[in-house]
């Protein structure tokens, strides 16, 4: 029996390769008449960074600056995802309706993507991967590798071409 793909989780850090990966999510959604939920994760300020700032400004001021930065990031990410959708769909209303939700979450990227997947129960996760050295992957790991190896849901990993950059993104 062929898989029934009706909901796709498009996970993005909105880097330079985002348009390339989004096209795969959109193509799969069109092919399977599926919906897309886009998720991007904004990492929390590390404990080290918080401790570094502590002697120079009060906790309330640090929290306010962090809150403002998070909101600004959320708005920029929402804007870029909407821009991508509009660029790829043009005036195709059916295409525009495939993107049913944009979620901007805060936390550790891989863990947060897996939590969103558990919450929305997609049939497929689509995310991009850059080329990394084996040593860097072994020591640092990558969000994509962590999701790929921890998810019970199939993951489509889209290789982002080296040096890929699209004007306007």
Show the helix and strand layout:
Layout: E1 7-11, H1 18-32, E2 35-42, H2 47-53, H3 59-89, H4 93-96, E3 99-106, H5 109-120, E4 124-129, H6 134-140, H7 143-150, E5 155-159
Parallel strand pairs: 1-2, 1-4, 2-3, 4-5
What does this structure look like?
The protein has seven helices and five strands; from the N terminus they run E-H-E-H-H-H-E-H-E-H-H-E. It has helices at 18-32, 47-53, 59-89, 93-96, 109-120, 134-140, 143-150; strands at 7-11, 35-42, 99-106, 124-129, 155-159. Helix 5 (109-120) packs across helix 7 (143-150). The chain is α/β, with parallel strands linked by helices and 169 residues long. The longest helix has 31 residues, at 59-89. It has a five-stranded parallel β-sheet with strand order 3-2-1-4-5, with helices on both faces.
Write a short abstract of this structure:
Helix content is 50%, strand content 19%. The protein contains seven helices and five strands, in the order βαβαααβαβααβ. Helix 5 packs across helix 7 (143-150).
